[in-house]
């Protein structure tokens, strides 16, 4: 370990601390580390230093500091990115600044966060309503993936898929496998890269590569199809806008725009749209079933504010602040990203008096802020009212950080908030959800992975009118 490095689990030759870092439920282990070693924990991933930030104030401090905004350079973190800094998620430095700004700016121009996106959310939820009207029960976990990915894909690639499209189902399956098997620390293959050659099957490396290659091949094909019909004065979607910039900068050797870069940006947006929003929606149904009184209260409010002759709309939000409080509470109690994706420190620095050398990988627990006992009082209790003041208005809380903190906060936050509000209110206006007869209450403990998801559970659907 480097000199004056934070305390942490013991290190073994070659593998470092990796045997003591669980591949599942890392956020829960980080809670234990906080008690055992303190708020900043030193790890070795093979021969590479890494720091796990487990203390809430330390997480707030670190993720706001400029020097913490890098992403790890080592091979495993970059493998899906053609081993280069590409896209938004796993790039950093001036490349990332330019790509993040470009992506956000043009997604907004294309309708991100505006009425065009809302229209597409409504189209998706109506599709679900139509399907659920035909059913008496449904299996919730994973159910919303095709719809939530369509919302972002409409802006990125100008396309939507039917919910049972085979190709879409295969892509979502590949993503689920990658998200469920992944680890924020890069896992054993990152610590001991030789395993890729010695034991590709056992380490999961081979299967991951197959999924990654299939996804990249799909995005490449979509991009090539766009290129064939590209017209500079008729830009249809984000891919067209990016292609235009790529062509404009084609003679510029320092350009950050390339076909590979576009493939990875598509990957970043598609994956985020498919996994995180879908899992959060499944959690909203889980808590609706477990807390029928909360479900009823939302429905009564919808009846009062919206009625039954029209659909809820974002404009109703100021009069439905309880709904936002419920959605906040779902994202707090079972957040889908309990540990931030790995960051990298871009220079030697100190945190809490410990030395952290340049290029150290950093993982930060968002869970520790969302579940801090001193701050929330009863963090394990599902209680939406904690986000409301005495007049029923939403109270902003600095520790409510499901989308991260600082310059790398989630690029999709506006879309997520709008999607969750419209999906949730429309579903509860139309249906009531309950446990099928004889089924035990579903567990709130999540399925592990890079993001978390609820375990498989079925619910009974009753139409409200
Ligand atoms: C419930 C849904 C979501 C949650 C809870 C969530 C949460 C997060 C978190 C915690 C980060 C990491 C911040 C960090 O690195 O410290 C992040 C980054 C990111 N998210 Fe989301 N996200 C969600 C949905 C989405 C969606 C739908 C999109 C697509 C538009 C998206 C795009 C991104 C991107 C591109 C980044 C990387 C930002 C960067 O490194 O500059 N996310 N998100």
TrEMBL record:
Record-linked InterPro entries: Cyt_P450, Cyt_P450_CS, Cyt_P450_E_grp-I, Cyt_P450_sf, Cytochrome_P450_fam2
Pfam families the record matches: p450 (PF00067)
Keywords tagged on the record: Heme, Iron, Metal-binding, Monooxygenase, Oxidoreductase, Signal
GO cellular component terms attached to this protein's record: cytoplasm
Single GO MF annotation: oxidoreductase activity, acting on paired donors, with incorporation or reduction of molecular oxygen, reduced flavin or flavoprotein as one donor, and incorporation of one atom of oxygen
Positions annotated to bind heme: 410
Superkingdom assignment: Eukaryota
Cofactor requirements of the protein: heme
BP-aspect Gene Ontology terms: organic acid metabolic process; xenobiotic metabolic process
The keyword Heme belongs to this UniProt entry's keyword annotation: yes
Family to which the UniProt record says this protein belongs: Belongs to the cytochrome P450 family.
Protein name from the UniProt record: Methyl farnesoate epoxidase
């Amino acid at each position: 370990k480097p000199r004056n490095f934070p305390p942490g689990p013991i290190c073994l030759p070659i593998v470092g601390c990796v045997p003591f870092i669980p591949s599942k439920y890392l956020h829960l282990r980080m809670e234990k580390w906080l008690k055992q070693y303190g708020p900043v924990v030193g790890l070795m991933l093979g021969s590479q230093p890494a720091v796990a930030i487990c203390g809430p104030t330390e997480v707030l401090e670190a993720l706001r500091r400029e020097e913490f905004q890098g992403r790890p350079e080592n091979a495993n973190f970059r493998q899906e990115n053609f081993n280069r800094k590409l896209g938004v998620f796993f790039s950093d430095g001036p490349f990332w600044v330019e790509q993040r700004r470009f992506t956000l700016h043009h997604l907004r121009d294309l309708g991100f966060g505006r009425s065009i996106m809302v229209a597409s959310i409504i189209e998706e939820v109506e599709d679900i309503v139509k399907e659920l009207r035909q059913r008496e029960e449904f299996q919730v976990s994973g159910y919303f993936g095709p719809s939530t990915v369509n919302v972002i894909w409409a802006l990125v690639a100008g396309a939507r898929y039917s919910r049972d499209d085979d190709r879409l189902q295969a892509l979502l399956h590949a993503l689920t496998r990658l998200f469920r098997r992944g680890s924020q620390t890069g896992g054993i293959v990152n610590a001991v890269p030789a395993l890729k050659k010695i034991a590709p099957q056992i380490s999961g490396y081979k299967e991951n590569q197959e999924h990654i290659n299939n996804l990249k091949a799909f995005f490449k094909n979509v991009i090539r199809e766009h290129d064939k019909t590209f017209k500079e004065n008729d830009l249809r979607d984000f891919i067209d806008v990016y292609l235009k910039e790529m062509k404009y900068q084609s003679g510029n050797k320092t350009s950050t725009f390339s076909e590979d870069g576009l493939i990875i940006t598509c990957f970043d947006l598609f994956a985020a749209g498919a996994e995180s929003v879908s899992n959060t929606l499944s959690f909203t149904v889980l808590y609706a079933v477990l807390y029928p009184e909360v479900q009823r209260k939302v429905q009564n409010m919808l009846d009062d504010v919206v009625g039954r002759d029209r659909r809820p709309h974002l404009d109703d939000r100021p009069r439905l602040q309880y709904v936002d409080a419920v959605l906040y509470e779902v994202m707090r109690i079972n957040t889908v990203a309990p540990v931030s994706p790995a960051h990298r420190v871009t220079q030697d620095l100190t945190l809490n008096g410990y030395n952290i050398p340049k290029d150290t990988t950093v993982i930060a627990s968002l869970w520790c802020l969302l579940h801090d006992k001193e701050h929330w009082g009863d963090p394990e209790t599902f209680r939406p009212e904690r986000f409301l003041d005495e007049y029923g208005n939403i109270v902003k809380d600095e520790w409510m950080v499901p989308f991260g903190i600082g310059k790398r906060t989630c690029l999709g936050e506006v879309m997520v908030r709008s999607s969750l509000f419209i999906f949730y209110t429309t579903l509860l206006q139309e249906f009531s959800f309950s446990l099928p007869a004889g089924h035990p209450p579903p567990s709130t403990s999540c399925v592990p992975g890079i993001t978390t998801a609820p375990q498989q559970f079925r619910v009974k659907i009753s139409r409200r009118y």
